[in-house]
Amino acid sequence: MTQDAATALKPDDPAELSREVAQLIVTALNLEMTPDEIALDAPLYGEGLGLDSIDILEVALVVSKRYGFSLRADNEDNVSIFASLRSLCDHIQANRTK
């Protein structure tokens, strides 16, 4: 098996992670859309997906529980972490323990 094929099978594959996180968002917030409808680079907050601060807190809770690290409300990087599905996935990739 080539290294590329081995990498594609890893559970932390970026494409797989983005599908999984999109599914977590849809499920946690009971959104009337499919995970595939969440664009990687569309804003999560306000314009784009249209989440509000309570929605972001819910997402932070499920992400923290699922991936084993804490997303704190007072983190000064939250604006950039929750800017898009891609930025959230990048943060998860860098910090996950599960």
List the helices and strands and how they pair.
Layout: H1 3-9, H2 14-29, H3 53-67, H4 78-81, H5 85-95
How does this structure look, described?
The radius of gyration is 14 Å and the shape is globular. The chain has helices spanning 3-9, 14-29, 53-67, 78-81, 85-95. The chain is built from 5 helices and no strands. It has 98 residues and is mainly alpha-helical. The chain has one domain: Non-ribosomal Peptide Synthetase Peptidyl Carrier Protein, Chain A (Orthogonal Bundle), CATH 1.10.1200. The longest helix is centred in the N-terminal third of the chain and has 16 residues, at 14-29.
CATH-defined superfamily: ACP-like
What integer is the average pLDDT? 87
In what range is the share of β-strand residues? Answer: under 5%
Overall body shape: globular
The tally of structural domains comes to 1
Structural class: mainly alpha
> Stretches where pLDDT falls below 50 for ≥5 residues?
1-10
Q: Span between N and C termini? A: 25 Å
Major sheet description: none
Tally of DSSP helical segments: 5
Rg on CA atoms, Å? 14 Å
Order of helices and strands: HHHHH
The CATH topology annotation reads as Non-ribosomal Peptide Synthetase Peptidyl Carrier Protein, Chain A
Fraction of residues in H or I helices: 40-55%
What CATH first level would be assigned?
A: Mainly Alpha
- CATH architecture name: Orthogonal Bundle
List how many beta strands DSSP finds: 0
